[in-house]
Amino acid sequence: MQLRLDALEAHLAKGLAGLYVVYGDEHLLAQEACDRIRVTARAAGFTDRSVFTVERGFDWSSLLGASQSMSLFGDRQLVELRIPSGKPGKEGADALKALAAAVNDDVLTIVTLPRLDAATQKSAWFTALADAGAALKIDPVERAQLPNWVGQRLAAQGQRVAAGEEGRRALAFIAERVEGNLLAAHQEIQKLGLLYPAGSLSFEQVHDAVLNVARYDVFKLNEAMLAGDVGRLSRMLDGLRGEGEAAVLVLWAVVEEVRTLLRIKRGVAAGKPLAMLVRENRVWGPRERLIGPALSRVTEGAMEKALALAARLDRQVKGLSGGTPGNHRNDPPPDPWDGLFELAMTVASPKSAPVPPPRPRAGAGAPGRRPA
């Protein structure tokens, strides 16, 4: 049985299933879902808890033994199985099918997994687990949905932002500061609950309380590029630089997106269906929805020029060469981070590339920031 996260509370109120599979990469939401199942399980008498984590050389027989043995004190058992890789292997797949077939009223099992691709979700072991209990998919909260998510969390602790534009600005401010990090957003929301009483929060209260807790993710640059969100792109590059991220890693992430766009652009020109090209190039999640508008902005020639710029930047960030002002019109900027912005702009805003618009340098000279 597939179960939506927003339906978990109603499901638990009706009674527990014998087995739960919780899978997805949004760790905060997965942890909260497991906590809610555990609380309900303890109230139902499942007080003897065993936890197994699958690592190299894991003994699957120990899991099956625990799920089939009775507690020494006659308590009902809660067995938790964590598979961080999402790949149990052949022996593990057989053990999981046996586990699903052995569900009984005195043992409740929670299996946690990361995000799974479509093929894994159709595998025999996963299907057996889902059929034996409830499979709970934890979808990420996309950035566009984050302000509403923050508002719902505030409401759950008896708070709300001011009505109208001021409230929307406050929610957007929190979303921008946490940059998609739900755990950080959760902590900031809890802090607001500690600092202020129940009721309405002004923008000034939110602004004063919320720290810039963004942990910029180099791979989310791709989303900002494809969306054409120049402001977010600039903030993320400055944030990555300030956090000491290696320029060569950022360059690799940007170049991979340029190469993907070029392959898909050429495939579409050759008459291949876009949906097939998206699958072949492993474009998933938010990127899948953004790839179409991005393709309409860029040209094959522009992507080829972007790769030529990337080759020069690669030599520059590795210390093999660098651009010198006035030396050659095709040289990258003297600062490699400006070159990275220029490269990303060939996708985000081709009309502005290759000369990027002026932007604030959040990392320059700021205390505690490490230069690239």
TrEMBL record:
Pfam families for the chain: DNA_pol3_delt_C (PF14840), DNA_pol3_delta (PF06144)
Catalyzed reactions: DNA(n) + a 2'-deoxyribonucleoside 5'-triphosphate = DNA(n+1) + diphosphate
Record's keyword terms, sorted: DNA replication, DNA-directed DNA polymerase, Nucleotidyltransferase, Transferase
Biased composition (Low complexity): 361-372
One term under GO cellular component: DNA polymerase III complex
GO function terms (MF aspect): DNA binding; DNA-directed DNA polymerase activity
Family: Belongs to the DNA polymerase HolA subunit family.
Official protein name in the record: DNA polymerase III subunit delta
Organism: Paraburkholderia panacisoli
